[in-house]
Amino acid sequence: MRFRDLEDKRVALLGLGREGQAVWRELRKRFPEKPLTIFTETAIDEGFAHELIPGRDQHKLGPLDGKDLEQFDVLVRSAGISPYRNALRHLRSRGVQFTTASNLWFAQNPRARTICISGTMGKSTTAALTAHLLNCAGFNTRLAGNIGYPMLACEETDIDWWVIELSSYQTVDLEAEPDIAVLLNLSAEHLDWHGGFERYTRDKLRLADLAGNGRIVANYTDLLLREKLAWHTGISWFNHVRTWWSGDGEVVGGHGSRVKAPASLAGQHNMHNLAAVLTLLDKLEIEIPDLEQALATFEGLPHRLQLIGTKAGVRYIDDSISTTPVSVAAALETIGFEDVVLLLGGMDRGLEWDTFAAGVADYLPYAIITLPDNGPKIFASLERTGLAPAGGLHQAENLASAVTLAQALVPEGGCVLLSPGAPSFPHFRDYADRGNQFYQLSGIEKGAPNTH
Questions:
Q1: 247-256, long-range: CB within 8 Å, 24+ apart, which pairs?
Q2: Rounded to whole angstroms, how far apart are CA atoms 218 and 209?
Q3: C-alpha torsion 329→332→338→342, nearest 10
Q4: What kind and span of H or E run contains 76?
C-alpha cells in the first residue's frame, strides 16, 4: 500500500510517537485537506499538538475502541500497538485494512538498497557500526528505523545503502524485500505484546523469510537461530570458522586475520556485533581501506554503557537502552560488578526473571535497587534465589528515589549503573528520556569536568 492508495480512503492513525508523527506529516504534505483522526492512549507531545490543524485533524485520547475504529477504511498502526489486540483482530476480520510507517516507506521506495538488522540484543550498535563502516568505504549511507530517524522522516533520495534497525514490533507485519537481513540472536522479549515466545520468535524471523535464501546473515552460535533457519540456504553465518567469530577483545577471520575492537566496542557482546558486521561486509564484497582507523573513529551509542561522569569518586554509567535481562548481564560483565549499585526494572512485559536471578550470582553487584513497574517481580525473583548482595536488595518508588538511595549505598570509588533490562514506558517518553533524567539526577553538570 502506497500513499496514493490512501487519497480516497477514510484514514486514522493509531499512536503518535516518532513514527506516527512522521506519517502524519507525510499525509499532510500529500493531502493537505484530508480529514485525519488520531487515536492515542496517552497524551501527545505538546509541541507536536500545535501542528495539528483544527477542523481537519481530530484527536481522540483513551483506550482503543473497536466501534470507534470501524468507520475507517485504513488504520496506520504505530509500532508500539500490538496487532494481536482483540479489538484490532476483530477489525481485520471485518475488512478494515492496516498498514504501518515501515510498510509505507518500503512501498514508496521499492528500489532502495536496504540492510535490515534485528535481534533481541545488539541491533542498535550493529546498525550504527554498519552504517559507519559503509560510510568509511565511500558509500552514501543512511541509518534509520528503530534507531536514528524514522524512515518517513528521511527525505534523501541519493542513498547507496539504507541501514535499517527493525524491532519485532515492526517485523510482525512487515511488507518488504530487504537486500540483506541480519539476525543477531533470539531470547525472550516483548512476550506480552506478541502473546508468547513462540509468536515472538515467528514475528522476529519474518525478516529472514522476507529476505529469502542467500540474503541472510545470522549468528551460528545462537542455537535457536540455527534451528529456525535450517530450511534457508546460502546463509552467511557469523561466529563461524569460515567467516568471522568473536574472540577476547577481537574478532578472528576465517582466513586467519585478527581485528582488535576499539574502546567504543567494549565487552564480549560487542565482539558478536563486530563479527556480524564484518561478515556482512564480506558478503557484500566491500573492503574498508583502513579498517583499524575506521573502527577507531566509531563512537558508541548514547545511553549504551555511556560513562556520563564521575562525582565524588563515583562513576555514573547510563545503559538506559538496555531493555532485556540479557543486556543487563552483558553490562555487568563488561564494566565489572563488585562495586556497582545496579538500578534495574521498568515496564513489565511478562518476562520471568528467575533465569537472570540465578545467573547474576556469578557477577553479583554490590547492591541492587529495583524500579517500577516490574520491580516487585524482579525483587521477588532475586530473593527467591537467595541472593544477598553486600549492599542489599532494595525497592524504589521511582528513578529519583533510586538514585538518591544508590548515592547513599555506593562504596567509595564505586559505580552507579542504570541498566534497567526493561522498556521505559509509561514513566518516560523513551529510553533516551530515562537516560537524560538519570544524568540530571546524578548531579553531574553536562560539559563539566569530572569531580573527585
A1: 247/271, 251/275, 251/278, 253/278
A2: 13
A3: -80
A4: strand 74-77
Task: Select the CATH number that applies to the domain covering 306-442 from these four: 3.90.190.20, 3.40.30.10, 3.40.630.30, 3.40.50.280.
Answer: 3.90.190.20
CA angle 101, 106, 108 (to 5 degrees): 95
**In this model, does residue 429 exceed pLDDT 90?**
no
Joined grid coordinates for residue 206 = 519474518
Give 140's pLDDT tier (boundaries 50, 70, 90).
very high
* Nearest partner of 237 among 278, 200, 199, judged by Cα: 278
Q: SS3 of 316, please? A: strand
Angstrom distance (rounded) from CA 267 to CA 335 = 8
Task: Assess whether pLDDT exceeds 70 at residue 143.
Answer: yes
Structural domain 109-296, CATH architecture = 3-Layer(aba) Sandwich (3.40)
Which cell numbers hold the place of 416? Answer: 552507579
3-state helix, strand, coil in the chain (%, to 5): 35, 20, 45
Question: The whole model's pTM is what?
Answer: 0.87
Q: What is the distance of C-alpha 326 from the center of its chain?
A: 13
